Input
Amino acid sequence: MNCPHAEAARNAGVIAIDPMVQDLDGETVRLRDAGVLARIDLLGVPAWTVTRHAEARQLLVEPRLVKDIDAWGLWQSGVVTRAWPLIGMIDAGRSMFTVDGAEHRRLRTKTSQALTPRRLEAIRPDIEKFTDELLDALDAARGEDGIVDLKAVFAQPLPMKVVGMLMGVDESQHAMLTRQYKAFFSMLTPQDERLALLAELDVFYTDLVREKTARPTDDLTSALIFAEEGGEPLTEEEVVGNLKAMVAAGHETTIGLVLNAVRALLAHPDQLRLVLDGEVGWDAVVEETLRWDTPTTHLLMRFATEDIAVGEEVIRKGEGVVISYRAIGRDFEQHGPDADAFDITRPSRNRHMTFGHGPHICPGAALSRVEAGIALPALFARFPGLRLAVPDEEITKLPVMTQNDMAAFPVLLG
Ligand code: STR
Output
């Protein structure tokens, strides 16, 4: 291959993931062009990453790759410690996110059953109500200059309200959680502050679980506490772990999905027209956005319990593997030579792997599709003249290594 990026990557051998996220598209292309498995550096810590669809699909069902941090050589040897800024992405307590096998099924079943498309029909009216309220808030938040931040006023609070309702987290706590997770994900947060906020969140969630244990309500947290089917009931630590994972994931990733879709449509007015004229459905917008501009850039991490051969490379026992979903969405083999283009009419738009694959496939996938499928049409119906208030190039990413997260999205509502 004579791609200069690929040459550079091979010479350097290792691609350092930029904590400041100054060139996400460039980095995505460099990773993809570096091969099926690329060597990356995460703030001084080496890992493999999978950058292609077919191989990721294979590795995501590979039982010799596990989530348990104790299988990580660099953790066993003490090279990686809690001082590493990304440790909270891996050492997140016992939950469906960190456990494999039969125990994983035990931890996950109740949650995935609560989030099936059928069960979600029941909360559709609530999501529509939240959306309408936030559209009013957008209208009201318009400044003198007519500019309003679509992220802060709409895309961020909506998923928080939805996951808050599902899990039984009171509205009065939403702003606190949004602030804490923003600091958690930001690479500008000093590590001692990050560890302190994680400890505070643990106290908050533990108190919440104890409160629901004493006075159960109609929410998934209470259901997890009192789940009877499927063998052993979950321990308090396991309920807390699942609750943390649900709130963190449910709130963070959908922000990206909604904003990335709006941004892509505003940058491709011909495609926006197709949707507004009813020629292409909103589901196509959602799926193509998921493929082209994934909310999760890199998913940390899995560890090899034995040597695993992948193509010409071997992942050695104890080594860490990241899944680079953004590069995977741009795979030429899977999506054709125009994989870097946003195209809601592409035939392969539904064949992305953005929610993962295998046992850990995102249990909230249907929920995020429902949320985006309500929010996007409602937004464009209320504000048909919606446009960016700054040139697209001026939209910057937050310094977050694993999520695809804009700092702000200033718009004119028209
Ligand atoms: C954040 C910190 C925490 O307390 C618990 C979790 C577990 C679930 C993780 C979450 C994390 C970070 C964002 C993740 C989420 C699962 C899905 C979400 C990785 C580590 C994605 O970005 C896909």
About this structure: Confidence is low (pLDDT under 50) at residues 1-11. The chain has 18 helices and eleven strands.
